[in-house]
């Protein structure tokens, strides 16, 4: 029985990567069983270089199995992936970066598990050939999510996943905003198989994955999958309340024994600053949740398609 595998590849400032990546993907087809057919969906996420032109060249070479989606602007990696998912006709799907840091040669083994009935196959990063600072940030991010938000996901983080059409339809039905799409797939609690690998060093081009984008993604992911920040506020509120009661009892005790409590200006300001900072932080955390609720209610589109070549 023939099966179709759909590649979903978000592209952002990847003009130099596209020719290399697409060539390797076509060569990689020989490693699959003959019953596998291929569909390539590449999404230009508002690139301002020649990424779209390179995608058109790939489409011209393989018009029957390549789809090109051009968005009106930069909506972010996960929204670009979401756009690609909506055009998929595959029996199973794989999300792959355009810079070849994740190895395409691992995908034939992933689809073997899918053919055995495993609906979700995750390639988790056992190690990565990146600078120390990037490794530390990535490990901190993933370990925090793994410990406090989505338990049971594999160690090391992951970007390369293969999943069944059923899961794709569930993701499209959720249509969640400001979320981490890969972790969203993991949160569905499907049994999965994980394949460890070493993430390659980026050889071509410069990553547009800035620190500000990483911080936003961390906040989005935590708010989407964990109530821990709200729980911390509750605990700290109870703690401050307990300390206030203790302080009141000390004052009453001094007054009862005839002592005159004399409080200095510094002590008073310290109490005000601590309580004020706690209130502001609490409002900020609650605001993060409320803003995302508002964004969901407004129901603005996650992406807008400019051109589609199917």
What attributes characterize this protein structure?
310 residues, alpha/beta, eight-stranded mixed sheet, 10 helices, 49% helix, elongated
* Helix amount: 40-55%
Tell me the Rg in angstroms: 25 Å
Strand content: 15-25%
How is the main sheet built? 8 strands, mixed
The multimeric state of the shown protein is single chain
Gap between N and C termini, in Å?
25 Å
Strand order of the largest sheet: 7-5-6-4-1-2-3-8
Mean pLDDT: 83
Task: Return residue spans where pLDDT drops below 50 for at least 5 consecutive residues.
Answer: none
Strand runs, count:
8
Shape: elongated
Structural class: alpha/beta
Tally of separate helices? 10
Order of helices and strands: EHEHEHEHEHEHHEHHHE
Mind explaining what this structure looks like?
It is a single chain. The protein contains ten helices and eight strands. It has helices at residues 17-28, 51-61, 77-85, 107-115, 132-148, 165-174, 181-186, 211-225, 228-256, 265-298, and strands spanning 3-11, 36-44, 66-71, 92-95, 120-128, 158-164, 192-199, 305-309. The chain has an eight-stranded mixed beta sheet, sandwiched between helices. It starts with a strand and ends with a strand.
Topology of this protein?
Elements: E1 3-11, H1 17-28, E2 36-44, H2 51-61, E3 66-71, H3 77-85, E4 92-95, H4 107-115, E5 120-128, H5 132-148, E6 158-164, H6 165-174, H7 181-186, E7 192-199, H8 211-225, H9 228-256, H10 265-298, E8 305-309
Parallel strand pairs: 1-2, 1-4, 2-3, 5-7
Antiparallel strand pairs: 3-8, 4-6, 5-6
């Amino acid at each position: 029985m023939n099966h179709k595998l759909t590649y979903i590849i978000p592209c952002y400032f990847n003009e130099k990567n596209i020719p290399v990546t697409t060539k390797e993907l076509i060569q990689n087809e020989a490693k699959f069983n003959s019953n596998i057919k291929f569909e390539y969906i590449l999404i230009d996420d508002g690139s301002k270089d020649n990424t779209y032109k390179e995608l058109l060249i790939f489409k011209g070479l393989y018009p029957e199995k390549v789809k090109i989606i051009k968005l009106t602007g930069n909506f972010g990696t996960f929204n670009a992936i979401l756009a690609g998912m909506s055009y998929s006709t595959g029996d199973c799907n794989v999300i792959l970066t355009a810079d070849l840091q994740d190895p395409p040669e691992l995908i034939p083994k992933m689809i073997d598990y899918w053919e055995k009935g495993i609906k979700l196959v995750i390639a988790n990063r056992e190690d990565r050939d990146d600078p120390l600072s990037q490794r530390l940030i990535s490990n901190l991010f993933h370990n925090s999510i793994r410990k406090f938000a989505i338990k049971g996901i594999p160690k090391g983080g992951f970007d390369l996943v293969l999943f069944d059409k059923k899961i794709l339809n569930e993701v499209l039905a959720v249509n969640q905003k400001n979320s981490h799409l890969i972790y969203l797939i993991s949160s569905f609690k499907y049994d999965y198989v994980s394949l460890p690998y070493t993430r390659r060093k980026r050889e071509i081009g410069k990553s547009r994955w800035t620190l500000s984008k990483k911080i936003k993604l961390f906040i989005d992911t935590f708010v989407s999958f964990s109530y821990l920040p709200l729980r911390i506020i509750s605990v700290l509120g109870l703690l401050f309340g307990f300390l206030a009661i203790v302080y009141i009892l000390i004052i009453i005790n001094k007054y009862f024994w005839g002592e005159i409590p004399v409080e200095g200006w510094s002590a008073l300001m310290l109490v005000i600053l601590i309580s004020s900072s706690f209130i502001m932080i609490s409002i900020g955390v609650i605001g993060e949740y409320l803003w995302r609720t508002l964004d969901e209610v407004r129901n603005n589109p996650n992406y807008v398609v400019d051109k589609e070549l199917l």
